Structure formats: C-alpha cells, structure tokens
From TrEMBL, chains A, B:
The lineage of its organism: Bacteria, Pseudomonadati, Planctomycetota, Planctomycetia, Planctomycetales. It comes from the Bacteria. It comes from Rubinisphaera italica. The keyword Transferase applies. Keywords: Aminotransferase, Pyridoxal phosphate, Transferase. Residues 35-405 form the Aminotransferase class I/classII large domain. This is LL-diaminopimelate aminotransferase.
Amino acid sequence: MTAVNENFLKLKAGYLFPEIARRVNSFVESHPDAQVIKLGIGDVTEPLPQAVIKAMHAAVDEMGDRSKFRGYGPEQGYAFLRDKIAEHDFASRGVTISADEIFISDGSKCDTGNILDILGKDNHIAVLDPVYPVYVDTNVMAGHTGSADSEGRYQGLIYLPVTAENDFTPELPDEPVDVIYLCYPNNPTGVVATKETLTKWVEYAREHHALILFDAAYEAFITDPEIPHSIYEIEGAQEVAIEFRSFSKNAGFTGTRCAFTVVPKSLMVTTSTEKQVSLHQLWNRRQSTKFNGVSYIVQRGAEAVYSPEGQEQSKALIAFYLDNARLLREGLEAVGISVYGGVNAPYVWLKTPQAFTSWDFFDELLNKAHLVGTPGSGFGASGEGYFRLSAFNSRENIEEAVKRFQKIVS
Amino acid sequence: MTAVNENFLKLKAGYLFPEIARRVNSFVESHPDAQVIKLGIGDVTEPLPQAVIKAMHAAVDEMGDRSKFRGYGPEQGYAFLRDKIAEHDFASRGVTISADEIFISDGSKCDTGNILDILGKDNHIAVLDPVYPVYVDTNVMAGHTGSADSEGRYQGLIYLPVTAENDFTPELPDEPVDVIYLCYPNNPTGVVATKETLTKWVEYAREHHALILFDAAYEAFITDPEIPHSIYEIEGAQEVAIEFRSFSKNAGFTGTRCAFTVVPKSLMVTTSTEKQVSLHQLWNRRQSTKFNGVSYIVQRGAEAVYSPEGQEQSKALIAFYLDNARLLREGLEAVGISVYGGVNAPYVWLKTPQAFTSWDFFDELLNKAHLVGTPGSGFGASGEGYFRLSAFNSRENIEEAVKRFQKIVS
C-alpha cells in the first residue's frame, strides 16, 4: 500500500497567498464593478527592461536557427550569466565569489525550499517571526517539525520574534541552533540588517557550526550605502552561509523566472562519521539530478540586466517602486499609522489601527476600500496586529490606494 | 552543528551524463581536430518549430508592454496551456483528464524527482533495470535505500531486469511493491508497452494499492496505432497512476524547458490513521509552496505546439528523428549487431559486439570512431553488455556515424 508523506497533513490551511487570492476572487465575484487595487503579493507591475526584451528576442531567434540552437544547457546555468553575476553582484562590492559557486535557478522560492534536500533531519532550525512562509512550510513538509499550535507556531522550530518592541532585530538564540534563515532586506517587515547585525550572526554561526540561509531577494532596494547587499561582505561568511538572489524584483522577472543561489566552496560540514563534506558538491549533485537548468532564452534575458542599458533600466524600475514605497509610508503616517520598512525595501509594514487583528483588517480594507494587502499574522504569530503593503503597482494606483486607505482609517 | 543529508554519500560517482561529458571533454582536449559525433545524451539538435518561435516572440513583446505584462502566473500553469493539453493529449484519445489535473512544470526530470516529496518513507519501490538513473538517484537522496553493491544496485530497491532474454518486458514483482516506475516508450531500451502489458500493471497496482509513476516523455514517437500513448488509456489507471510528459523531445524543448505532470483527482491514498488523502491535493500544495510556475514566454511557446502549424511542424521533427533511428537500426543490423528499440522511440539499444563491457565499448567508440553513445551499464546492472545510441542528430551525422560504426565493428 502506498505511503504518503503525512507531514503535509500538519500544514495549516493553504499557503498564505493562495488564501488571499481565494478571498479576493470571492469578493470580486460578488462585487464585479469594484476597482480592486492589489498591494498584497509582492508582484511587480512594470514591464521588463527593454534591454531584456531585446536579448530575449535575439535568443528566441537563435532557438529557431539550427546553427545557433541550444539543447540542454548546464544544470548550473550558462557561464555567460554566472560570470556576469560574479563580477557585478560580488566583485564590484569587494567580494570574491567564483562563477562556479553560483547556481542559476528558476526561482528563489524553489531554491529556499529545495535546499533542505541536502540538509539532515535533526537540525535545530531558527526562523524570524514573522517570516516568509516558504521557509516554515518546507520544513514542515520535510518532517522537521511537529504540529502547529493555535497561533500557527510549529513544534520544534525556533521562532525569533521581531516586533516594534525589539526594533525588528532579533536577539541571538538562547538555545542551540544549527540552521538559521535570515532575509534582508526583510520580507515582510521591510527592515534591513546593518553590518554589525550581520557580523553578529556570522560570528554566531562560526562559533556554533551553524548554517545561515541568507535570502537577499530584495537587495537591489538597498539605498543606504552603509547596508551590506550580500552576507559575503561580512568576513568569514563564506564558511557559514548560502545566499539566495533573484531577478524577480530587481528586473521584474516574477513571470519570467530566474534566480540564483551561491554556495561557496569553502562551506564545509562535518558528518556523523567525522567526514568533511562540501555543501557545494552536494548542491551540485542535487541540481544535476533533480533540475535541468533554466530556459536559455530566460538566461539571456537575465544576462542583459547586467548590460549598461539593462543596469540603467532596472535601476529606474527600482527607483520607481521605492518612490511608491515612500508615498505609501508618508500617506499612512499622515493619518497616524505606525509604519516600518519601505525605505530600503519595497514593503511597508504597518501596525493595524483600532486594534484590528491582521485578518480582520484585511477584510476591512478589501470590503471598504477595495484594497488588498497581506495580513501580518499570515507571516507568523508575532505578525499579528501588523499588515504588509507592497509598493509594486502603478503610481496612479498607489496614489489612489493612499487616498482610500486614509479615508477608512480617519 | 549543521547536519547534512548523508544519503547523498551513498550515491555512486557522478550522475551518468556528467560522467560521459567528462570523458568526452577530456578526449576532445587531447584530440582537438577529431570530429566527434554525439549520440549519447538524448538531446535534440533541430531548431524549435517556427510556430513556437513566433508565439515566443509575441510573448516577449507582451512582457515589454505594461498593458500586457504578466507577473507571477499560477504555480500550476496557465489555463490556456492546460486546456490545450487536456484536449489534444487526452480527450483526443478518449481519455477524460480535466485541465486542473495537469500541472505545468519546467521539466520531467524535476517532476520525477520532486514527486517523492509527497510520498512516505517506507514504500517498497520497484524500478526496471536498466532504468533512467534519476528515478534511482532521487530515491537514494531521499533515504529510501541502503548502500549500493559492486554492480550499482542499491539495497532496498526492487529491480526488475529487462533484457533480450525476457523481451525487455519485466515479470510482475514477486514481492510486495508500493511504488513502481514505468517509462514507455522506454528509456533506455526504446521498447514500448502494449495495452495488455499496461493493463497487467494497472491491475497489479489496483490489487496491491500501489502507485504507478508513468513516464511518457517519449510518447510522441509512438508510430504503432495499437500502442497506448497514455497510461490513462487503460481502464482504472486514474486511480493508481501519475503520468509525466514533456515538450523536450516532441517539440525540441530541452533548452527551452517545459513539461507537465498529470495527477488525477481520483488518485487517493490511505494514511496510517486510515484517512483518505488526495495525491492531487498534496502535489498542488507542494507545487504552490516550492515552485513558482514556468516562464510565461515558455508556456506560450508550448501552447503553440498545439496549433495546426505547431502540430505539423512538431510531427515533422518526430518523423525526422524516427528516420534517423531507422537508419541507425538498419546500419547496425547490416553488420550483425543485435538491435532493439528505435521503432517507436528515438533510442536504439544494442548488444555490444565482441563481449565488450558497456564502458569499454564507450571508450572504443569514442577513441576509434569519435562517436559518443551511452553505456548500458550506466542505466543499471542489467544494462551491462548493452549500449544506447540516440537518434537526435542531423541526417548527415547519423549517416556518418553509421559508416564509422560499421567500420570499427566489421
């Protein structure tokens, strides 16, 4: 008789964003004329940079020409893209990452989930709370947790609360931790980590032989020159950290699909039989066996992000969304809402007014203002009473959203 | 201290194809003038159908136009593609599969590996021998096996030998099996399964509450009208089988990346607490959490495979490769080689001459004829003494390969 992975049965309800989609669809069905503005899921709205469009057209033409056609590419990605990343994202910031430490993939969501394939079953795993749900759900699926309590906290995971009270910067864990997920600029709170904060984590990881899974999907939004873009800007991080990056938000690739993961070769782990094992080798084996590389066309598009035109155009995109974030911040603050993030990140994190719970405020905003945001509690128990708005939208919609928001809370 | 997944350490050497690439690269480095013809990895050589090129250009343009731009798509794939698949691949053959039972993905290799995420740890798992290595390696990684013996057979897996002696059609297992991988048209042997053979398996699975993982990546190569293209052509299969399909070989998508997996809603499994669980729901949850959908551009390309022009052009591609397979078959038979497959499949499976082992014959062919094939033993212990040639190449190269092959074996 076939056995299923019963860990799936521990998962609470649907994954957050499908649940939001369900409520929105149901509202739209019963209010077909409502002009709903979506600031929920962090999905971009502006078209791809023209440099990317041009490069993808050229790649499509190659795929139609026998002499230039490409079949299976390297599972790890093409050198033309890995080289550009090593140079632009790392060498330019004084960080030495070699091209073959970079694995091109079709998404950071996939990679942050799949990375568990190479880790053992008995790690003590820490996450911030609130947190991007994928880190938690994939650990539940992998059997690394017990059941969830009534607030959604899974037994066995170590939650590090981040709230206004601790300035959204967690204390170091006071119990042993083997794997720690960090995301900066943070999703959902929009806060960043200083060099000092990251140094503390790297030192902790080195001391405790722990692994940092560093999600830097939003690094392009960092405007403050003092804030590190990569954890590898911290001395010694290459021995303790894997970093996840994405083209989704910096160049609008959410529907085009390209990301990458850095696994330094100096990242070694000791096995139960005292053998030294390279995580780079394990991830390479995992990717060679369970992945077949990213579409050639898409990789050429990602490469074009690094061209002079691509850089200029993607920086303009980022500046546009950051201006949206500023308008949201200022508009909400003007009516007395406590707002966090939104400076070095495309997310604005706010305290719900009038003691609304996160989901009640979601329904209130949807029903009365036809605005969609993301309930803070969907990101974890400590997100209760908070709410996330995304700056990914047209200027017109952002301005209209601010007006509607101000109207219902004042 | 971070624990790694030590099951990875049980894996024998590299994954087959990287090992072949390594030997070929090393040969080419020392023989820079050799005109090597590659009939190893099953990678297409002809450009994408023009209908696909046209559709992808249009999709790229949409991604550059704000009013048509697409961000995150449904993790399960766009309805425009799922509907076409349901109609053309299933309804047209009298099989009722609904569009929402079809999950679009970036590759069958990924799906056949990832499917283990939703299955339990204690299944008795059967594979044919020889077999596509991904089925085995992903089970090793997931901890479903012990170590490998000297012939590469992993403890705990049930191997069903397929050789010339049993006409490459395995007996039903004589020990309990909960999960069975079947691939037809078969990789690597190129043989197909009749309706009777598949019916026997479906009946076995129904009787033993087992799950069939049916890999139909090569179905487009079936020329015999009596051979089923889908396992769902067998009555009752929707209650016991998951089917994997790909655009890689029928439309040349190996470097473009699109595939799909069918998980019927009637596929239910009983848990240890006697609950009925739907594998469709589990897979949907897995994909929503760990995957973000296939590039919009690529999905539009795949959709175009089903247009009248796309159908005509992809059928011409298939016919071209099948003609290559015929030339290989006939050319090898003419010098007394025993050849199997290559009629309803793009692979020709041959008995190595002069009692060569598979890897010795690989080196012989590479060194003396500058031909690359795949050693049968790379697919499993029972593949020893066999060798696979792929029909994916230009006509000129196939004709030249036949000549060179004939020269060294006669």
